[in-house]
Design goal:
about 400 residues, Ubiquitin-like (UB roll), 2 domains, five-stranded mixed β-sheet, 11 helices, globular
Length: about 400
């Protein structure tokens, strides 16, 4: 079960004017499962995105990057059950064929479509099934369809992930709604995740690209479940332009800052929901690294801890074998790290002081914290003013079972 991830109240998912969503059950992997999703955007919308850094990136990622360079994106199509990755030239042809089919359905050009796929790698995309599912997805298009959309992009997720916010900016109400999927093969830059966030704000495309990168760096690029960077990761931000506040085009304006913070808040919720629903996860862990010289070294320490199987299995067992955390800090790659300055905390428990066991630390206090479902690891490097936070989870028996049986 997800770690303290509340069930979605569909009444709290707000429609975004200018963004319609529709789904169908195409039988891509399993019958009677929502597995094809369409987004249709109103004329004048802008779209920006960030994608996986895996060099073996999937065909839909390559096609989406190409189509984004043309601008004027008017629709997105998502399928689950098949990643269309590791499929070579045929995969590219299949992704483009899906775009052409969507364009035909919606009266658009194929370059106005962004394709996304998630599922099993190294298998050909069943394009005929997707083609057959598009008419029903088109018929289903409506603005108040975010809950069905969240369900339509799930793979090993145990529950859908969606959230909405409404904020007043410049005297107008701005709506932001988003969905995400992901539970395993999760590591920044980016993870086996898809994230789609839509707003009715009017934001120029170049500014929107800055905004999506800012939000990603503080959300989807701050989560890790197992340290594996996927082939299909994509985070897309859509702005329909229905609410026009002049400051949204100026990255130095207070109006833009308010929009930026709201989009980042939605993105962080969706990113953390992925970790809370991590494959086999029983604990949600925040890794805070403080007092570094820069963000890079803070991130290196945080990820070293968050990726460590020894650390993650200790947390699953509620075993305060906390020397594993110090070891991870030590191999994080900071060549001139003075370990005699390092302090380590578990929530309010001071575990290590100046690089060694705190004389006042008691193991029963560490175990008390480790039995919690939500835990904060706090590392003070005491060598600067930079800080960062990464969110992760533990490793349980179920993680191995889920991934051993993934294709069956």
């Amino acid at each position: 079960m997800p770690v303290n991830l509340p069930a979605i109240d569909p009444a709290q998912l707000f429609p975004v004017p200018g963004i319609e969503l529709g789904y169908s059950c195409a039988g891509i992997k399993k019958p009677n499962r929502k597995d094809v999703l369409l987004f249709r955007l109103s004329a004048g919308s802008t779209v920006a995105g960030v994608f996986t850094q895996n060099r073996f990136c999937a065909a839909p990622v390559l096609v989406s990057k190409d189509h984004l360079s043309h601008g004027d994106i008017r629709a997105l199509v998502v399928n689950t059950g098949n990643a269309n990755a590791g499929t070579g030239e045929k995969g590219l042809l299949d992704a483009r064929a899906v775009c052409e089919a969507v364009a035909s359905q919606l009266g658009l050009k194929s370059t106005q479509i962004l394709p996304f796929s998630t599922g099993v790698i190294l298998e050909s995309l069943p394009v005929e099934k997707i083609f057959a599912g598009l008419p029903a997805a088109k018929t289903d298009l409506k603005e108040n369809n975010w809950m069905n959309a969240a369900e339509a992009i799930m793979t090993t997720d145990t529950q859908p992930k969606a959230v909405s916010r409404q904020v007043e900016i410049g005297g107008q109400i701005v709506t932001i709604s988003g969905i995400s999927k992901g539970a395993g093969m999760i590591r920044p830059n980016m993870a086996t995740m898809l994230g789609f966030v839509g707003t009715d704000a009017a934001v120029p495309q170049a500014v929107l690209q800055e905004l999506v990168r800012y939000a990603a760096d503080r959300s989807f690029n701050r989560i890790t479940i197992d340290g594996d960077t996927s082939t299909n990761d994509s985070f897309i931000l859509m702005a329909s332009g229905k609410v026009n506040v002049p400051g949204f085009g100026d990255t130095h304006s207070p109006e833009f800052a308010a929009l930026r913070d709201a989009v980042t808040d939605v993105s962080q919720y969706l990113a953390q929901a992925i970790v809370r629903d991590g494959e086999g996860a029983t604990k949600f862990i925040s890794v805070q690294v403080e007092g570094g010289r820069d963000d890079v070294e803070c991130g290196a320490v945080a990820y070293a801890i968050a990726h460590s199987p020894l650390v993650k299995t200790a947390f699953f067992a509620s075993d305060p074998n906390l020397g594993r955390i110090l070891a991870a800090i030590g191999y994080a790659g900071i060549g001139d790290l003075d370990v005699s300055k390092i302090d380590l905390y578990l929530d309010d428990v001071w575990v290590a002081k100046q690089g060694g066991r705190n004389p006042d630390y008691r193991e029963e206090d560490g175990q008390r914290v480790m039995k919690q479902s939500e835990i904060t690891i706090r590392v003070q490097l005491n060598r600067g003013t930079a800080d960062t936070t990464v969110w992760t989870c533990d490793f349980s028996y179920d993680y191995v079972r889920i991934n051993a049986d993934y294709r069956t």
